[in-house]
Amino acid sequence: MDPDAEVTFEFAPVIRQYKSGRVERLLPVNPVPPSVDAATGVASKDVTLDPATGLWARLYLPVSARHPGGDSDRRRRRLPIVLYFHGGGLVVGSAADAPEHAFMNRLAARAGALAVSVEYRLAPEHPVPACYDDAWAALRLVVTPAPAADPWVRDHGDVARVFVLGFSAGANLAHNLTLRAGSEPDVLPRGARVLGMALLHPFFLSPPPPAAAAGDEVANYAWVRAKLAEMWEFACGEGRTAAGPDDPRVNPLADGAPSLRRLGCGRVLVCLADDALVAEGKAYYEALLASGWDAADAELLDSAPADHEFHLREPDSDKAVLLMDRLVARITGS
């Protein structure tokens, strides 16, 4: 059989790879350029964070920050920094995708924040741990003061108020990044601090339970959950170590995984939807409380029966508005 036609991995409607190595990304991406958003007044631009790897990000700056009343006013108006990671199973998606771009415009406007949406490298061309390396590099580059730093970050960002946010696979990156920030606090510059983290419908896995013990949340999505486990192995690449759903990077509750008390932030918001990931999301939140997190600092928002991605597809729905309200409250500390 033609190696350019023989399929070696497929998860429709997400991705397909052929024996030749050719990859088809089936999930559509509608890239849009940075701009000044007509609805919110938020300006955006793309910046290179690391030329060596091609890592880049789309920055978002609210309209009020672009018209300061002088240097002293600018210092008073330093904005919280939101470091955001898009979804896509570690294999698809983009910071430039139209729904992600619109979401970041709304968030930057509502929270009055400087938002940094990271275009991390995707598998299988860049297998795990490239995505985790990019997340860590993005955090360090954003909070490290330097004369050559991007002017928006240098002049407007408050490195003492960083908020890490991720959706789906991006939430997996956000968790692992914040855990590393708590484990290696001395690596970040003096004064830089991750204040909070929000996980939107996080991509976590767990070993499949016996059929008799599987609740509806697991049984109803059995096929999807099995494909997600396969996709994790696919993202790790051939010849690379992946312990399947027992790998702490994709299962924070696996035996031997670091305690959630080591998360390097002061507050957490876990957001759930009616999807194949909800059981692990609930277990993660319960593990937060069991590890010693106070309920005032660890919040749960369950948006069921709304499904995965509802906040991107239906931004004006009641549940999407409530989700945005909770995110803004966490970012601003209100």
From TrEMBL:
Under what name is this protein listed? Alpha/beta hydrolase fold-3 domain-containing protein
Gene3D superfamilies in the record: alpha/beta hydrolase (3.40.50.1820)
Under the heading Pfam families, the entry gives: Abhydrolase_3
PANTHER family linked to this entry: ALPHA_BETA HYDROLASE FOLD-3 DOMAIN-CONTAINING PROTEIN, ARYLACETAMIDE DEACETYLASE
Q: Which SUPFAM superfamilies match?
A: alpha/beta-Hydrolases (SSF53474)
Q: Which domain of life is it from?
A: Eukaryota
GO MF, one annotated term: hydrolase activity
Native organism taxonomy: Eukaryota, Viridiplantae, Streptophyta, Embryophyta, Tracheophyta
Residue limits of the Alpha/beta hydrolase fold-3 domain?
82-311
